[in-house]
Amino acid sequence: AVAAPVFAQDTPTLNWRLASSFTRGLDTLWGTGELFSRYVREGTNGKFNIRNFPGGEIVPPLQVLDAVQKNTVEMGNSSGYYYHGKDPSLSFDTAVPFGLNVRQMNAWMWEADGMKLMREVYGDYNIINFPLGNTGTQMGGWYRKEIKSVDDLKGLKMRTAGFAGEVLSLLGVVPQQLPAGDIYPALEKGTLDAVEFVGPYDDEKLGFAKVAKFYYYPGWWEGGAQTSLYINKGEWEKLPKSYQSIIEAASRAATVTMTARYDNLNSTALRRLLSQGTQLRPFPRAVMDACWDATQKVYEQTSAKNERFKRILANYMGYRDELVPWFRIAEASYDQYVGAALSRAKK
Amino acid sequence: AVAAPVFAQDTPTLNWRLASSFTRGLDTLWGTGELFSRYVREGTNGKFNIRNFPGGEIVPPLQVLDAVQKNTVEMGNSSGYYYHGKDPSLSFDTAVPFGLNVRQMNAWMWEADGMKLMREVYGDYNIINFPLGNTGTQMGGWYRKEIKSVDDLKGLKMRTAGFAGEVLSLLGVVPQQLPAGDIYPALEKGTLDAVEFVGPYDDEKLGFAKVAKFYYYPGWWEGGAQTSLYINKGEWEKLPKSYQSIIEAASRAATVTMTARYDNLNSTALRRLLSQGTQLRPFPRAVMDACWDATQKVYEQTSAKNERFKRILANYMGYRDELVPWFRIAEASYDQYVGAALSRAKK
Predict the structure, then answer these.
(1) Who contacts A275 (Cβ-Cβ below 8 Å, separation ≥6)?
(2) For residues A184 and B236, what is the distance between their CA atoms, to the nearest angstrom?
(3) What gap in Å lies between CA A220 and CA B246, rounded to an integer?
(4) With 90 as the cut, is the pLDDT of residue A141 above it?
(5) What is the DSSP string of B106-120?
């Protein structure tokens, strides 16, 4: 027989700590963790208190996974792909190049095999994970010079990491991993030529527009970047069922709210940026194609070295290949018609 | 001084009834109400029990709003546009022709003025509303004959209602309002020429493919159809804060889960339908343009008669006009590139 959790039938008073990888200034990413904690606190009549700490305050931003694994903190709010170096399969929990968009990612996680596969991966780290937000398709970043051809990528010192960094380095980019706070000075000094972060609202705050004029799209390495909640497995198993259920509902609620916030804020931020001189550019088709091809190479190389990665990649990309044609029918044709009609109406 | 709610500091045992407009067979629409109730029950340690009744069992499907208003049942799960005849502003709570897609609707409701405006409208009916699901962009329906031009719409007996019916009747369609169960026999007898319901997964279950061969897209009258939770205002105000918070989080969680379910299920359902002879067709551009123009006329006519409708329309469409150009940048260019790349890869 399995022992019942310690306070299974109770509503215990708990004071937990959540280490975030994000800083207070980014009210989108940081704010989602706060919303989640508020739902949990209110739903339990104030009995289950989760205090959120910004990245660097009690745990360095890129060590949140380790801190939850070791139970230094009970909870974390981070992104799987920050730990790409430990295990590239963790990147599927955030985004991988030319992967799922927001809605496809939600469907994969909650209605298909995504959650089961990610739980298997995080199991290695003694962590129970939940989605806790999605930014939507990100922008392709800020560049001091125009990117007119694949050749313009050569030697480009760019702030990016994980898979995107590996793919871009095949095309000559020199990827640099820098915390958010160090990016602006590096761009200003010219020791960095380009940077990608999220999208108009966050990027505007970080001031990139002042030092890099060209703003490219789309961020093909993040078609929909999911952020995650981490819970130490031993602590999770001790929670009463009611608290576990509140965590599940609150994490889904926070996930959809983060996307709504970004969708609400990005549009006006982009308008402000454009009015102040930012030059918006789509990546040239030849650049997109070269990145697509390089991505397939990186996937093959990683699969050859890592059996589990290969298995998850097949599941994830199989799901993409299944869903994308359907999204092109009703959704895309609707969006396209409305977009074109509004453009015509403006003229 | 205002009296404190009866059991504000307590966790009372409550047994509530929720009348749904949907039937058990539609596990997408019906299932979302069940998921919501499960989150509430589990989160309150089984103290707050909401029993869901299918449409027609204790309340007729199209009288859910009235039943909640009169407190015959404490809760309802329905669609605002079913009550278009009472007040056309209620349609904004579901979908209106050429309106917001899923993500834009979520952003309008939760991060902009949507919730405030809809609460104002439902206030007339003594109801507190929450979003409780969104189907995504629907299909344009099933037709026994091809729609090659605007002329082919003339005299078409079509199952549709509300705004879509008003717009289509300007183009010669004869709109019919029928409950889901009566549609199939009417199509079979030929007393109905066309029907729109939701999308591949639900439509397949209702058997439309057996009697109508042509399946059109997109459903321009439902770019993202939101379904709603209704709570009698007096009952809501008596709830303790913790139960109110659990309802809010659970309704957001259920909303995003419904969309994920549809996104997961529609793709394979469409594939089955196509393999069994369904002919997929986009509405011809001239038909879409005629519908767009007729829609603007209906909006003008309705605005001329109804001041509040006019005010909400301006807010809602202003939001669409603000967000759509941004969605065309990162999101649409990403989706389009991936879609085209996969098509090329298949060849």
Answers:
(1) none
(2) 49
(3) 37
(4) yes
(5) HHHHHHSSHHHHHHH
Tokens of B308: 């509040």
Q: How far apart are CA A221 and CA A81, in angstroms?
A: 11
Residue A107: domain span: 14-136+223-265
Q: Which residues 27-46 on chain A approach chain B with CB closer than 8 angstroms?
A: 39, 42-45
- Contact: B263, A325; criterion CB under 8 Å: no
Q: Is B327 on the interface with A (CB under 8 A)?
A: yes
For A198, A205, A323, B15, the CA distances from A140, given in Å and listed in that order, are: 8, 17, 24, 52
Find, among A337, A108, A330, the residue nearest to B270 by Cα: A330
Q: Which of B103, B218, B330 sits opposite A139 (nearest CB)?
A: B330
CA pair distance A118, A113, nearest whole angstrom: 9
The span from the CA of B264 to the CA of A301, in Å, is 30
Answer whether residue B161 is part of any domain: no
Mean predicted lDDT score pLDDT of chain B: 94
* Intra-chain end-to-end CA distance of chain B, in Å: 73
Tell me the percentage of chain B whose pLDDT exceeds 90.
89
Residue A339 to residue B322, Cβ atoms within 8 A: no
Cβ separation of B253 and A257 shorter than 8 Å? no
B194 touches chain A (CB under 8 A): no
Q: State the ipTM, two decimals.
A: 0.96
pLDDT of residue B8: 47
**DSSP state letters, B42-70:** HHTTT-EEEEEE-TTTSS-GGGHHHHHHT
- Structure tokens of A320? 């993409």
* CATH code of B75's domain: 3.40.190.170
B178 domain residue, yes or no: no
* pLDDT tens digits for range A209-243: 988 999 999 999 999 999 999 999 999 999 999 99
Within a domain: B214 = no
Instruction: Express each pLDDT in B90-104 by its tens digit.
Output: 999 999 999 999 999
Q: Count CB-CB contacts under 10 A for residue B49.
A: 14
Q: How many domains does chain A have?
A: 1
DSSP code per residue over A10-38: S---EEEEEEESS-TT-TTHHHHHHHHHH
Q: Is B83 helix (H, G, I), strand (E, B) or coil?
A: helix
pLDDT digits (tens, 9 = 90+) for B219-271: 999 999 999 999 999 999 999 999 999 999 999 999 999 999 999 999 999 99
Q: What residue spans of chain B are helical by DSSP H?
A: 29-43, 64-69, 102-111, 114-123, 162-170, 180-189, 200-205, 233-238, 241-275, 285-305, 307-327, 330-346
Residue B73 within a domain: yes
